[in-house]
Amino acid sequence: MTNEELKKTLWDAANKLRGSVSAAEYKYPVLGLVFLKYVSDLFDAHAEVIRQRLADPASDIYIEDKATRQEAEASFVTDKTFYDQDNVFWVPPGSHFGVLLKQGTDPELPQLLDAAMGDIEAENPSLKGVLYREFSRLALGPGKLNDLMVVVARLKFDPKQHGSRESPRVSRRLNTLRGLSHEQVEQVLARGA
Q: Which positions fall inside the N6 adenine-specific DNA methyltransferase N-terminal domain (predicted)?
């Protein structure tokens, strides 16, 4: 994903909330969903890394027998240890962006998002008290939150480009936008985050 793609997606996301949420507030749900998409994409990519390690003779978790390896994959890709050791945020199954996106028409979507963010915080102590968990307090019309998620779903985070939970590039972008007013966010987006 390029800076231009990120800027366009953030701009489109902000436009989905204009008129529904005050300009001073809509950066929080947008950045919350961007973060959820980010951790979900990196989580999925790391599951593939685990599968590759199981098939790589040079790996310390290599399993030669294909049938045994396939059985182990199901267990290993759902084992939090393999994510923690590589500094990848753990995303509980019901908290994954893709799972929540499929529930976009559910009237309980705001509550599901709040619970998902709470579950991610609970599984990743470094996030305790950091994530946006007020989707249920947003006064959005029917379908607005789903529309916002559809826009955010266009973002594709690549671990080679965006790194792990310690990626300075992503952290810098999100931190830059987090403390700004609506006008300042627009200025940052106009010049490139």
A: 6-138
